[in-house]
Amino acid sequence: MFKRIVFKIGLFLVTLNVFAQENNSWQIDFRTDVYSRHLWRGDRLGDAPAFEPEISLSKGKFGLTMWGATTFDNSYEELDLILNYQVLPALNLVLYDYYNPVPGEENNYWNYAAEKLRHTIDLTGEFEKEGFPLTVLASVFLYGDKDRVDGKEQFSTYIEPVYHFKLAGKDFNASAGFTPFSGYYADNFAFVNLCFAFSDSFTITEKLELPIELKFCTNPHTNDAWFVVGIGIRNR
Fold this sequence. Notes:
236 residues, single chain, mainly beta, 12-stranded antiparallel β-barrel, Porin, two-stranded antiparallel sheet
C-alpha cells in the first residue's frame, strides 16, 4: 500500500513538472507530514502514526492537489484528488475524491460503481476573509455515502467554524465541528469534533521550512479524545 501511494505521488509530480515547464506561471507546492495519529472530523483513522505527503499545482483561482496517507502498520490508507476554485475573495469551493482501500480486501481504484466502492465525493465550501479571525468550513458528501439499510445516499453534512488567535505571539485556533442531522458522522445533530490547536514553523533553508502542530481533540458524540503531534517539511 505504501509503495502504491509513493508511486502515484511520484507520477503526479512528473505531470506537474511538465505543466510547470510549459507555463512558468503555474506554482508547485509540496509538503510531507508525520502525525502521531491520523484524525479526521472527529474520528481516528488507523492504529499507528501516519505518513502524509501532499503536492499541489495552482494557477490564479484554480488548484489541483494530490494528498496521501498511510499508517506505519498499514491499518489505514487514503489517496485523495482535490480540485479547488476561488469563487469569491472569501469563498473557496473544493471537490474531494477520497479513495480508501480496505486492508485485506479486493480494491480497485478505478471502480466508481456501487459494488465494492472505495471512493467518496465531497463538496466543501471554505469561508475565509482576510484579517477576520473566524473561518467556516461546510461540507456535504455527494456520492459514496449510502445508508446501509435502504441504500440511499445520506448526503452527510459537516460544518466547522474555527476561531484563530494569538497567544504569547504564537498561532492557536479553536474549532467546533458538528453535523446537523443523521449520517456518516452521527445518528442525529451532534458536535463531533472539538479541537484546540497550536501551530508554528521553523526555517530550515531559504526554500524549506519545518511546520509543527499540536492539537487536543474530542468527539462529544462518541466520548473519545486524542492529543496529536504532527511535524513535517514543506516549501516556502
